[in-house]
Design a protein that fits this description.
Distance between the termini: 31 Å
Strand order of the largest sheet: 3-13-12-7-4-5-6
Number of strands: 13
Radius of gyration: 21 Å
Structural class: alpha/beta
Shape: globular
């Protein structure tokens, strides 16, 4: 296939450009459906006239359906998009980028989606879809899946679909609440994943940060003990990666902590741990939830994070925390490799 693609690039470059344009239209319809033409043209930066002509062609091929609610993929369109994906990744260099990043970060597997989530929220949705699809491949009966909070984890939850293996899955929040929008909290995301997949979930109604006294008190609560034991049995851990200062501000950290993080040159955060560029822990939040030591029990640790602005954070944390799988975007991948 690689040789054929190289020949097509040389002999039929216009054909490949058209194919890529139609692939992007199908991909965004799948992410946004049902979607109106005006919204789609804005995301793709196409004129409505150009988009109308392309959609008309895709309709005649029975790949797209249009009704009063907007455009959506037909079953044939969804099947074709799935079949095209490996070829498009090879054609535009994403497969090689994945291999380069696996080697750079010493990870078992890297999955890269096109685009940069710093520039488009729809790229974050695509990372969510990639993670949800990967989870279906590795799902096992009676498993426990621990999940953290954040907007990228919400994107994963929204893309989950039922699978027979998920029916006996227990989704558990990996952390307490940061005190932000409820839909970004780990509790909500765990419950949404369970709802989408027909699985089960546990809740952990505690703050992300607690005092030493509160920490010791909460540890004695039977419900908290049960949730913490479930976390230690997690087969799969899915988590995001945050910029250190952004997460510290979201946690309403004191000025003394903010100064410490700046002084120690913290670049990334995950599970309440703050890391510097060398992957060294420079600060840890006192909180209830999954600890780094608990990750040794997990069969698969999956980090989902993107955006070129998170390159340093992803590099610092991936090799220390997410030793298994990284799902990211093209912008972050290229930025990480440029740091070398």
């Amino acid at each position: 296939m690689k040789n054929l693609l190289n020949l097509q690039k040389q002999l039929l470059p216009d054909l490949l450009r058209v194919m890529h344009k139609r692939y992007e239209i199908l991909r965004h319809i799948q992410l946004m459906q049902p979607v109106g033409r005006r919204s789609l043209s804005g995301v793709l930066d196409f004129t409505e006239r150009v988009l109308r002509a392309e959609v008309d062609f895709l309709r005649t091929q029975d790949l797209v359906a249009v009704d009063s609610s907007g455009m959506r993929l037909t079953e044939s369109g969804a099947d074709l998009l799935s079949e095209m994906e490996p070829m498009m990744k090879e054609l535009f260099g994403l497969n090689q980028l994945e291999r380069d990043l696996e080697s750079c970060l010493n990870l078992k597997k890297v999955i890269i989606v096109p685009g940069d989530s710093d520039r488009s929220d729809w790229v974050k949705k695509e990372m969510g879809r990639a993670c949800a699809r990967f989870l279906r491949k590795i799902a096992e009966p009676d498993q426990v899946i621990a999940v953290s909070g954040g907007s990228t984890m919400l994107a994963v939850a929204e893309m989950m679909i039922p699978s027979s293996a998920f029916k006996s899955t227990m989704f558990v929040p990996a952390r307490g609440g940061v005190g932000e929008a409820v839909e970004l909290e780990a509790n909500y995301i765990a419950s949404l994943m369970a709802k989408k997949t027909k699985g089960h979930y546990r809740m952990m109604h505690v703050p992300d940060q607690v005092s030493d006294e509160a920490y010791q008190t909460l540890l004695r609560e039977p419900h908290i003990q049960e949730v913490l034991e479930s976390l230690k049995r997690a087969h799969i851990v899915i988590h995001g990666i945050g910029n250190a200062m952004t997460m510290a501000v979201r946690r309403k950290s004191s000025q003394a902590i903010l100064d410490k993080l700046q002084r120690e040159q913290a670049v990334g955060e995950s599970f309440g741990y703050y890391f510097n560029r060398n992957g060294e822990i420079v600060y840890r939040v006192q909180s209830l939830g999954l600890k780094l030591d608990d990750l040794a029990n997990a069969k698969n640790i999956i980090a989902v994070a993107g955006g070129s602005s998170k390159a340093e954070a992803i590099r610092a944390i991936s090799t220390k925390v997410s030793r298994d799988i990284l799902i990211t975007d093209e912008g972050a991948a290229k930025a990480i490799l440029s740091l070398e």
